[in-house]
UniProtKB/TrEMBL annotation:
Signal peptide: none annotated. PANTHER family: UPF0102 PROTEIN YRAN. It comes from Candidatus Nomurabacteria bacterium RIFCSPLOWO2_01_FULL_42_17. This is UPF0102 protein A2917_03180. It comes from the Bacteria. Pfam families: UPF0102. Belongs to the UPF0102 family. One of its GO terms (molecular function) is nucleic acid binding.
Amino acid sequence: MPKVFTSERQKIGETGENVAVKFLMKHSFLILERNYTKKWGEIDIVAEKGGKLYFIEVKSVSYVTDYNSRPEDNMHPWKLKRLARVIQTYLLSKNLDEKEWQVDLLVVFLNLKDRTAKVKVVSDIIL
């Protein structure tokens, strides 16, 4: 059954995540999980490259509606705290608590009309 979107924002978010996955795969990342969800938070993408885990938050915006916005500014302290908690849960549940890891942010700017996208990478965010 196809996914039903209840808002334009959800559609943009899903499209942005799909673009992010393709971008990561093009750059030799192995995608381990998408939308790892617990009651206290969600990790958009868990990937691996060179023996290191990457927990990736994806922020997506449409050129048409949000051209001047900075989605990375939406990484509020409470969001980072929730992200840290769900990352620790993931690491413990997979027995990976000794593995090297980092948190990255991928900002995806979508031009839905032209079906193009631009990806901005913010590497190694401190939680």
